[in-house]
Amino acid sequence: MKVHLDRTLCDGFGICAKHAPEYFSLDDWGYASLIGDGTVPEADRDAVMRALMDCPAHAIMELDERRPDDVARPPDGADDPAARLKVESNEAEWGFTR
């Protein structure tokens, strides 16, 4: 598991440092800082997840380990988003007329 702390969202509640002091420290004004690179071993996962879930400002995020190549692409012709664009040629379908 890997986490990221967005310091611009932190409001200084300090709950993260209470739940996972090995991963979050507080500066002189009470705002959180991430200790290390955000990598969390399985043994500490529960404490860090508790800090993430209890953060009132939602400043802690779990980073997804999947890569773009891991996601299966839809088959050709499957639900093309461009087909749903609202343009002049299909304005009657989406409810706008001039």
How much helicity do the residues have?
10-25%
Please, how many helices?
Answer: 2
- Identify the CATH architecture of the domain at 2-63: 2-Layer Sandwich
CATH class of the domain at 2-63: Alpha Beta
Euclidean distance between termini CA atoms: 53 Å
Beta-strand content bin: 5-15%
Largest sheet: 2 strands, antiparallel
* Global shape: elongated
Report mean pLDDT, rounded to a whole number: 84
State the total count of DSSP E strands: 4
CATH topology of the domain at 2-63: Alpha-Beta Plaits
For the biggest β-sheet, the strand order reads: 1-4
Q: Give start-end ranges of low-pLDDT stretches.
A: none
SS-based structural class? alpha+beta
| Cα gyration radius (Å) | 22 Å
Order of helices and strands: EHEEHE
Can you offer a commentary on this structure?
GO terms for molecular function: 3 iron, 4 sulfur cluster binding; metal ion binding. Its cofactor is [3Fe-4S] cluster. Residues 65-98 are annotated as: Disordered. InterPro entries: Fe-S_cluster_ET. This is Ferredoxin. The protein is α+β, with helices and mostly antiparallel strands and 98 residues long. The protein has a domain at 2-63: Alpha-Beta Plaits (2-Layer Sandwich). The chain is built from 2 helices and 4 strands, in the order βαββαβ. The chain has helices at residues 15-19, 45-54, and strands at residues 2-5, 24-26, 32-34, 60-63. The strands form 2 sheets. It has a two-stranded antiparallel ribbon. The chain is elongated, with a radius of gyration of 22 Å.
